[in-house]
Amino acid sequence: MGELAGDKHVKYILCVEKKKDSFESVVMEHLRLNGAYWGLTTLDLLGKLDTVDSNEVVSWILQCQHESGGFGGNIGHDPHLLYTLSAVQVLALFDKLDVLDLNKVTDYIRSLQNEDGSFSGDVWGEVDTRFSYCAICCLAILKRLDLINVEKAVRYIVSCKTLDGGFGCTPGAESHAGQIFCCVGALAITGSLHHVDKDLLGWWLCERQVKSGGLNGRPEKLADVCYSWWVLSSLIMIDRVHWIDKEKLIKFILDCQDTENGGISDRPDDAVDVFHTYFGVAGLSLLEYPGVKAIDPAYALPVDVVNRIFFGRC
Amino acid sequence: MHGRPRTAPKPEDAAASAAKAQKLRALQSQFLSYHHDRIYTKEALDTSAKLLEINPEYYTAWNYRKLAVEHNVKESESSPESVKSIFDEELKVVENALRQNFKSYGAWHHRKWVLSKGHSSLDHELRLLDRFQKADPRNFHAWNYRRFVAALLGRSVEDELQYTEDLIGNNFSNYSAWHNRSMLLSEILKKKEQESYSQDTISKEYEFVLNALYTDPDDQSGWFYHHWLLDQTSKAKAPLLVSSWPVPGSELVVSGNVSLGDHPLSSFSKVTVALERFPVVLYFNQTVEGVNSSTVAIQCTFVQNEDVTWKPFSPQNSWASKVWVGYLDLSGVDHHSSAPHTVEVKLGHHKGIMSSNGLQLSVPFDLSFRVSVKPLETQSSKDEKLVWEEDKFYACEMPIPCLCYDGISVGNKYEPTTSDWQIGTIAEEISQIRNLLAISDSKIGKITLARLLMAHDVMSSPYATKTVHAEEVLGLYSELMKLDPSHSQYYKDERSLVLLQQLLSSGGTLLKHCFYYGGITSSSTHGPICLRLNNQSISRMGAFDKLLWVQMLDLSDNELHSIEGLEAMQLLHCLNLGRNKLRSFTALDPLRCLKSLKVLNISHNEIGLHSIDTTRYLCSASPLSHNGEVIWHGDDFTPEDADVTNYWEASMVFKSLELTQLDIVGNAVANEKFQSFLLKILPKLQFLDGQNLHRI
After folding, report:
1. Contact at CB, B3 and A248, closer than 8 angstroms
2. Are strands B393-395 and B514-517 parallel, antiparallel or unpaired?
3. For A108-122, B103-117, B247-261, B564-578, which range has the lowest pLDDT when averaged over its residues?
4. What are residue B531's DSSP bridge partners?
5. B564 touches A at CB < 8 Å
6. CB of B288 within 8 A of CB of B307?
7. 3-state secondary structure at position A14
8. Do residues B371 and B443 both lie within one domain?
9. Buried b (16+ CB within 10 A) or exposed e, B614-643
C-alpha cells in the first residue's frame, strides 16, 4: 500500500490558491469560502496551517460579510448559510472568532429558522436539512444555540427520516450519505442522537462500503472519496464505525492520490480537486492514519480546535 | 470534480481553458456590477442568463433574477400576459441551466420559486421530469421536484405509486423508486386504518419485491425495501412489559450499603442497595413514554405513590425509553421487625403509557413482591479486596428462582400481541428466502433470513424464553463473517446479541454461568453470586431484560467496545470489564446511572489509545452536545500538559459514583499523573489497581 503524500498535498493546496486564472477556479469563484475551509482544514490536519498568513485570510473573510450579517461565498456575492458556516469554521481554525460582531451573525442565522423548525439557506427560502446543520453548527461554535428553537429544529430533522434509518433534504426525500452527515451531525450537536435508529442506519451506512474498499453515498452507486467523510463521520457519531473494513478504505483513499502533483480525486486516476483532497485527508484522520491530526466528526474541525472552543484548552 | 480523468493538460488545452476563463470572468464581473447597481434591463438579464447557462451553480445570479422578476412584475402590473411572460422566461433559463447541470440546487429551487408564484402552467412539468428521470432515474433533485409538482397538481398517491411501479419495472435496481414507494405506502397505510387493508397491501408488496430479489439477489435496492416491509410486519401492535425488577412474587431481603466483606449478595433474594434508593425497574419491548405516578400506582405501607418519580433510562435526556426506573425510599422501614412488606405495582390501568406511534400498553399489569429490610450489621469485617481470579469462583448449585419473565411468572395475564397474520407472513417469507438461498449465495439474503428467524422467535415467545432458531441464526452469522469479511464486525455484533439471548433464556443454561465468589476470607458462608459471561467472544452486550437481577457481573476477556444498555442493571455492585476493547471514558457513560456500583475493573482496555472517540456524542453530559448538565470540576486537578478530554470525561463518569475499588492498569491513559487525578475525584476509593490506599 502507498503512503500518504502529505507534503505533496500541502503543495497542491497552496498552489491551487495561486492559480486563479484557470477555468476551474473561475467556475468555483462563487464558493471560494467553502474552498478556503476545505483547503485550510486540510493544511491544519497535516500540521501546516502556519504556512498561511492568517491576517490576510481573516480580512478577506470579513470582506465577504454582508450587511445582513451573513457571509457570501466570495466578495460581492449574496449571503447564505453555506458560506456563513465556512466563515465561522475558518475563523475558529485560526482562533479568530473574536473578530466577529457576534450579534450580527447570530441574528442572521436566527432569522432563517422557519415556523416548522427547518432552516432556509437564505432569504429566498430554499429549505434543506443541510441548512439546519449549518445553522446549528455555527450557533454551537458561537455558543448561541439558545437563540433558536432547538426542539423544533430537531423535530424537523427527525421528520426527514426515511425507510433505511437515514435522512433526506426534506420530509419524503431519499437518504443520501451527505445529508445523513448533516442530520446526524445536527442531532449530535444538540444532544439528540436518541432519535437515530443506530443499528438500522449503521447497517445501511456500513453497506456503503463496496468491493474496492471505497464508500458510496447511496445503494448501487459508485464509490467516491468524499463519502469517506460523510459516511465515516456519521458512523463514528453513532458508534458503529467498526462495522466497516478500515484498512480497505485507507487503501482506497491512498489509491486516489496524485502522488506526483499532489491532491486527491474522487476515484483512482481521476482529476484531483480541493474538495476531494479535504475529504480524503479528513477521512484518513477519522481512520486514525498516523501523521494526520484528529478531526471531530460533528463540527468538522480538528479536535484540538473543538476542544479549545468547548473546554477552553486543547 | 466527479469522474473526470486525471490527465496532464496539453499546452493548447491550457490556452483554450485560459481563454474560456477570461471570457467567463468578464461575464461574472459584468454580472456582479449589474447586481450591485440593481440594474434589471433586458441586457442585464441576458448577461445573467448567459452566465447561468455556463455555470448553473452561480447562486448569486439566481438571486439576482428573482429580484429582477419582482422588480419587473411591479413595473408591468397591469398586464397579466406580460407577467406570465416574465415568469415563462425564468422557466426557460432554468431549463437551459439544467441541461448543463441537472444536479444544480439553485436551478431546481428557482423553478420551484417561479411555480409557487402561480403564474405558470404546470402542464409541462411532468413531461420535463420524465425526460430528466429517464436520463438519470436516481437523480434525487428530480425526485424531490416530482414530489413538489405532484402536490401542486394534486396527483393521487395511487398515481404516484403506479409511477414507482413503472420505474421499478424498467429497472428493479432503482433504489430511489423503492424509497418513494415506501413513503407513498406509509401515507396510504396511515390513512386507511382497516387492518385487513394494510395486511393485504403489505402481503402484495412482499410478492412484488420478491421478483426483484430473484432478478439479482446481490442488488441491494430491493432488499432494503424488504427489510422495511419486515419492520412494518413485525412491529408489535402495542407495547408490552417484558421484564421487571423485582420479578412478580419475589421475596427480597434488602440491606443498606455495606462492604463486600459482609457478603450481602450471597443469595438471589438478598440485595444490597442504598435504602433510600431501592429501584423498581420496568422493561418494555419497545420505547414508551408516559410512565409516571399517575400511570403506575405503587401501594405499600412505607411509600406514598406520589413521592415516586419515574425516570427513563436513555443515554441522553429524552422522555421516552424502553427501560424506566422508580426509586422507593426504604429508609423509614423498621429494621428490627423481620416481617416482610408487600409492595404492589400496578400499571396500565390508566391510559398514558404508550409507544412512539401512540399505541397504549397492551394489557394492564400488576406485579407484587415482598421485601424485608435486614438490620445493618455493625462493622463485621474490614474491607476486602475483590480479586477476579479463576480459582476464586466455584460453581453455584443453588436452585435458581425465577429471575425474569417466563410466561409463568406473569400468570394468565399474557394476551398475544401478535396476530396470526403476522406470524403467518413471517413464516411465508422464511420459506421464500430459503428457496432463494438454495439457488444463490446472496449475503444480504442470509442477513434477511437471520432477521426473519429472530422476528419469528420474538413473535412466538414475547418474553424470549424460547429461542427455537438461535442455533441456525448463529450459524448464518458465522457463515456471513466468512462470506463478507469486510463487515465481519457487524455480523459478530449481531451474533453476540443472539448468543446472549440463548445463554440467558433458560434457567439451565443460566445456571452454568452463575458462580459463588469465594475470595472473601472473613466470610463463613457462601460468597456473593456472580454471573460470569467472561471469555465468550462477545462483542456487544444485550439481553438486558434478563439481567436486571445481577449484582456481580464478569464480562472480562470479551471484545466489548461499548456497554450501551447496561444502565438498566440497577443492582450492579461489582463489574469486571477487564481485557475488552473500550476506547474511551465516554463509552462508560451508562455507568453513571448505576448508583450501587462499588467495584469496577476496566483494566487492559484501549482507553487513551485512540485519537478518534466514537462515543463522544453518545454520552449524556458533554459540553459538545449541549445537554445542559455540564459542570466541569476537574480543571484544578488536571495537569497543564495533559489531554483535557480524558480528564474531563473520567471526572464526568466517576463523579457520580462511589467506587471503592478500581482497576485501570493496562490502558494508555493510566499513567502516574492520571492515577493521582483519580485519587482526587474518587474520595471513597480504597484499592486502585490492587494497591490498598489505606484511606480509613
Report:
1. no
2. antiparallel
3. B247-261
4. B514, B553
5. yes
6. no
7. helix
8. no
9. bbbbbbbbbbbbbbeeeebebeebbeeebb
Residue A72 sits at the chain B interface (C-beta within 8 Å):
yes
Asked if B418 reaches chain A (Cβ–Cβ under 8 Å), the answer is no
- Whole-model pTM over 0.90: yes
Question: Do B374 and B452 reside in the same domain of the chain?
Answer: no
Question: CB of A145 within 8 Å of any CB in chain B?
Answer: yes
* Identity of the residue numbered A223: A
Residue B391 lies in a domain: no
| Rounded distance between C-alpha atoms, residue A142 and residue A150, angstroms | 15
Domain end, chosen from B123, B143, B173, is at B173
Indicate whether B229 pLDDT > 90. yes
Residues with Cβ < 8 Å from A109, sequence gap 6 or more? A69, A70, A81, A84, A135, A138, A139, A147, A148
At residue B380, the pLDDT reads 45
Cβ <8 Å between A219 and B175: yes
Is pLDDT of A241 > 90?
yes
Are both B550 and B682 inside the same structural domain? yes
- The tally of CA atoms less than 13 A away on the side-chain side of residue B166 is 10
The minimal CB distance from B228 to the residues A27, A163, A193 is found for: A163
Q: Which structural domain, as residue segments, surrounds residue B669?
A: 533-695
Evaluated on CA atoms B351, B352, B355, B361, the torsion sign reads: negative
Q: E-assigned strands of B374-472?
A: 393-395
Closest chain A CA to residue B643: A314
What SS3 state is found at B264? Answer: coil
Residues B376 and B430 in one domain: no
Kind and range of the H or E element at B494? helix B488-504
Per-residue burial over B60-96, b = 16 or more CB atoms within 10 Å of its CB, e = otherwise? bbbbbbbebbeebeeeeeeeeeebeebbebbbebbbe
Extract long-range pairs of B373-378: CB within 8 Å, 24+ residues apart.
Answer: B373/B253, B373/B254, B373/B255, B373/B275, B373/B330, B373/B333, B373/B334, B373/B335, B374/B253, B374/B254, B374/B255, B374/B270, B374/B335, B375/B335, B375/B336, B376/B255, B376/B256, B376/B258, B376/B335, B377/B255, B377/B258, B377/B262
Closest to B21 (Cβ–Cβ): which among A26, A76, A273?
A26
Residue A120 forms contact with B (CB below 8 Å)? no
Residue A19: what pLDDT?
79
CA trace torsion A252, A253, A259, A264 (10° rounding):
130
Whole-Å CA distances, B180 to B112, B140, B166, B284, B594:
20, 11, 12, 32, 44
Does A130 contact chain B (CB < 8 Å)? no
Least Cα separation, residue B531 to chain A (angstroms): 27
User: Can you tell me the distance from the alpha carbon of A83 to that of A88, in angstroms, rounded to the nearest whole number?
Assistant: 9
The grid coordinates listed for B581 are: 476493547
DSSP-derived letter for residue A170 is S
- Scanning the structure block, which residue is given the C-alpha cell 433464556? B505
Nearest chain B residue to A207 by CA: give it: B487
Residue B674 located in a structural domain: yes
B401 is a domain residue: no
The count of CB pairs under 8 A between chains A and B is: 222
Q: In this structure, is residue B350 part of a structural domain?
A: yes
CATH number, residue B46: 1.25.40.120
pLDDT at res. B412: 45
Question: Is the CB of residue A130 less than 8 Å from the CB of residue A82?
Answer: yes
State whether residue B485 sits within 8 Å of chain A by CB.
Answer: yes
Nearest to B175 among A26, A218, A285 (CB): A218
pLDDT tens-digit readout, A57-67:
999 999 999 99
A76 to chain B: closest CA residue: B32
Nearest chain B residue (CA) to A225: B2
Q: Which candidate, B74, B70, B66, B151, places its Cα nearest to that of B109?
A: B66
Whether this model's ipTM surpasses 0.95 comes out as: yes
Average pLDDT rounded to a whole number, residues B128-150: 93
More confident residue, B548 or B361: B548
**Is the same domain home to B623 and B679?**
yes
